[in-house]
Amino acid sequence: MLACKHCPPPVTAPNTFKLWGSYVLVSGFHLLWICDTILCYIREGGLIKRLVGLQAEGWAAVKQEKTAVKILLKQMIMRRVLLALVPCIAGGVYFFGWRSLLMVIWAGLVGFITELIFTRIRREPVTEAVFVTTTIFALIMPPTVGFHVLTVGLVFAVMFAKEIFGGFGRNIFNPALAGRCFVYICFPVALTATWAPASNEFWGALDKWSTVVAPDAITAATPMANLKSGKMVLNSSQQSTGEIPFDIAEGKTVQLRRTALLRGLLSGRISGTMGVTSAVLILIGGVYIFLTKTASRTIIISLVTTYAVLNQVLYWFGIEPVPGAWPAVLGGGFLFGAFFMATDPISAPRTKPAKIIYGIIIATCTTIIRNFSIFNGGLMFSILIGNMFAPILDHSVRVFRTARSAKVKT
What residue segments make up the domains of the chain, in order of their start? Predict the structure, then answer.
């Protein structure tokens, strides 16, 4: 038969023997490879051991994945700080009512949610340090402050002063102070001109929501502010009043006995920020973190000593309105800042010489700002200034040590 040139060529049947031979050859190579792999596993420590090891690695991976997605990271050092803050929280409730406790709880909730948004993106847990930040922030706010101010300040503190830098351990400034500085500028009246009276009853304000019961129950200045402005003058005369006035009319001056001011600063029955009016309650928590080495002893001693010496020396020279060492140290929440804020382990220096210089810088700036500027919040600005110098102080100390070591070796 003649093949048509337009038709396709006939299909030739495949050689079955050659096809099956190829399959057998490839399968044989696969079998040899599997046997060789098994023998290698046996020589390296046993096949069963390898299988058990792979199972253990699998369980470890599952456990690691579960750990990576947990919500809260436990931090014992932060729990100690929170425990030390309990007396100040109780004092805020006792002196200014149960609204103070709600402020602390609300602050913790807002701070937790704000940090959770960022940590979920990074697949990291929320640190318990955020509750230290929120508690401190609430305690250094006036008891009359609105919840919108509290919320704005906390969001700024956690978001812009901490999470923007990468989260816990990477922030430059103390988050609580950065947030307070922000609302101090944005809401000056709420932060500086609306102070509630402290309850003078035996049971305090435990039966009240707030000590502000009427618009006239708010003062525009704290006792320390009146002392700075000259409205209140300290002396030892028995003719002077023994009670700290809640409000002083414009143009009037009140003569106050020094013992009365000392009693008010120790007990806390004065107007001021919510949780830092009582030096005794601050010292209860402060001594605890000092003895347990939760806070840096070097920073505390350097800061308090320098501040007391500077104020006393200026007082001896008759420089006004410097009140002297003990009113300066006990008033204005200075001890609270020295124990709980200046000692922040992240924003403070890490080397001992740098810690000493850091405390001196904060004490000097606080003395200048509190006594000779229009701002009463000298400690807040001073600690933030100290935070700026902390990295370069550590760097300078390390460079000096390296150079001295090299000089000794040569």
Answer: 73-219, 295-410
- β-bridge pairing 232-235 and 72-73: unpaired
Full-model pTM: 0.81
DSSP 212-264: --SGGG-BS--HHHHHHHTSEEEE--TTSBSS--S---TT--EEEEHHHHHHH
Secondary structure class of 72 (helix, strand, coil): strand
CA torsion sign for 205, 207, 212, 216 is negative
For residues 178 and 157, is the Cβ–Cβ distance under 8 A? yes
First to last CA, the chain: 106
H or E stretch at 127? strand 126-127
Measured CA to CA, the distance from residue 358 to residue 356 in angstroms comes to 5
In this structure, are residues 106 and 145 in contact, taking their beta carbons and an 8 Å threshold? no
Return the sign of the alpha-carbon dihedral for residues 163, 165, 168, 171.
negative
Residue 357 tokens read as 């210089």
pLDDT, one tens digit per residue, over 337-388 is 999 999 999 999 999 999 999 999 999 999 999 999 988 878 999 999 999 9
